[in-house]
Automatic annotation (TrEMBL):
<dbReference type="InterPro" id="IPR008183">
    <property type="entry name" value="Aldose_1/G6P_1-epimerase"/>
</dbReference>
<protein>
    <submittedName>
        <fullName>Aldose epimerase</fullName>
    </submittedName>
</protein>
<dbReference type="InterPro" id="IPR011013">
    <property type="entry name" value="Gal_mutarotase_sf_dom"/>
</dbReference>
<dbReference type="Pfam" id="PF01263">
    <property type="entry name" value="Aldose_epim"/>
</dbReference>
<dbReference type="InterPro" id="IPR014718">
    <property type="entry name" value="GH-type_carb-bd"/>
</dbReference>
Amino acid sequence: MSITAFEGQYEGEAAVWLKAGRYEAAILPGIGGNLICFRDTENGYRFLHEPGAAEMEAFKASPGIHGIPVLFPPNRYEDGEFPWNGQTYKFPVNEAATGNHLHGFLHTAAWEVEEFGSGKSESFVTVAIKVDETHPSYQYLPFKYTVKLRYTLGEATGLSQQLLVHNDGGELMPCLLAFHTAINAPFAPDSSPQDYRVKATIGERWELSERMLPTGAFQELTADEIALRDEGVNPFFAPMDNHYTAVPQNGRNRMELTDSKSGVTLVYDVGTSYKQWMIWNNGATEGFFCPEPQINLVNAPKVDLPADEIGLFGLKPGEFWEETSRLYVK
């Protein structure tokens, strides 16, 4: 079984490739530290929504719906305002339709490769980004911090992700983060979107305003959303840009996507620190959808609810925050 890690290219962009038996994956350090592909080469499965050659320029301009983009801080902030610890920071309003800031600063930034390599059963890569006064995003969110991502690939264990955030500065910093993970449906070459059923550990659906901001109230789940939580439903049953609480089942916080034709289920186990799910399916357009694990409620700093309930927390100077996730097949 071949197990290796090496520097190469993905559609002309610098990449680090991981291989372990039938699996391969690639990360783009220069474009947001985005894990851009995860494949089963024996069966022809492509689990993540990848940009083709013709899509690369659009992807580089807005790398939000391919691979696993890192959102820090994630999702929308009303009028670009981010109140924190007695100060209000002003983010650029980059979503004209809502007048909000969307998705933070790390998914478009360049990350550095710290190391890559392989062992007896797995290959791995670690990328990091260090933000201080010299980083362009510091003008909007003036905190010093380091974020590290380590991906490990094994034929028996699938693709694991270790995320580490460290406060390098001298004051309490916000720790708000999500992944805009884009999953193919179908991921198998001989299957159709109608062959797919998705389950997710959702709880309640947050009511969102016309500006896609939470009102603080909940809405009753539809029959299809109850199926999403319980037995599974087609990912494109209706247009979804919905925000839910996360309620672990059997101690796990996860999304499961089953291809009924092949009998294969892709599991996305994201860890219980992610207290929210955003699920987006591009207006019910078949092909891919985004089950997005999120630490915090959308617009959390401006929502008058208990901080622990909405995932609004900070790191003291020198503190770490860590979580792991895994994509695997069963």
